Each structure stands twice: as C-alpha cells, then as structure tokens.
Amino acid sequence: MREDFQEAVLAVAALIPPGRVLAYGDIAELLGAGGPRQVGTVMARSGGSVPWWRVIRSSGRPPACHEHRAWAHYLQEGTPLKGRVEPDGSGYRVRIGDARWQPEDSDWTVLDTLRSQLGDAAAPANPGMSPGHGEVEV
C-alpha cells in the first residue's frame, strides 16, 4: 500500500474531533482514493497513532475486536450511541447519522491538500504531455 495514502488516511483520522466519527468509506471519499477496505487496512496496521475509535463501519459498529476499548472512548467524548455494551463488546452502535463529522472550512483546506498530494503521486510519469495527446485532462 502506498505510504502517501497511509499518511493521508491517518491525517484525516486525526482531524476528526471528539464525539464525532467517520466511516471507512467516508475517509476514502474525502481523499478521492482507495475504498473502505483500504482505509480499514491502514487503520488496522497504523491506527494506534490516531484516535482510531473515531473511524468506524458504515453500520455504526465500532472497529472489530476493539469494541470494549472504543466504548470507553465514546462515553468519555459524548459520542451519540444506541444500545448497551455486552460482555463480548457487542450490543451497541454509534448513531452515525448524529455523530458523522462534517469538515469545516479550515478542515477542507487540509483535505484539499491531502487529496492534491495523492493525485500528484498518481499523475502520469510524462507530465509534458498535454490533453488530446494520449492523456485525459482530469
């Protein structure tokens, strides 16, 4: 997996404020790269360096195998929840409709920069070629 994509995913996760969440697919959409599985892979491998509990499944379920630890964070941050935690960590979900983070203007500046950097890294190796000469303008 590309290192710049990993860094961008972690940067977005770090932007999410307390009490708010994004789904894996939300992060991919904000970056214009990857998909929910790729974001999930980054979070599973490197998410410990950011508030990982704020990146969840689109169903509102917390990160797999970390339900108990996430529950404590959600309670502390006042994240909107439904249900109660069961002994196995199941039984609750984040009310994602109420908790989904909406970036503010200053956040969009950061997100635009991250998206641009990812786009630059994916740019063709022949930057001198103009549209209409084998390249498509994006």
From TrEMBL:
- The organism's place on the tree of life at top rank: Bacteria
Q: Which CDD domains match?
A: ATase
Keyword terms: DNA damage
What residue stretches are annotated with the Methylated-DNA-[protein]-cysteine S-methyltransferase DNA binding domain?
Answer: 4-62
Instruction: Check the record and name the Pfam families matching this protein.
Output: DNA_binding_1
Q: What name goes with this protein?
A: Methylated-DNA-[protein]-cysteine S-methyltransferase DNA binding domain-containing protein
**Organism, scientific name:** Arthrobacter gandavensis
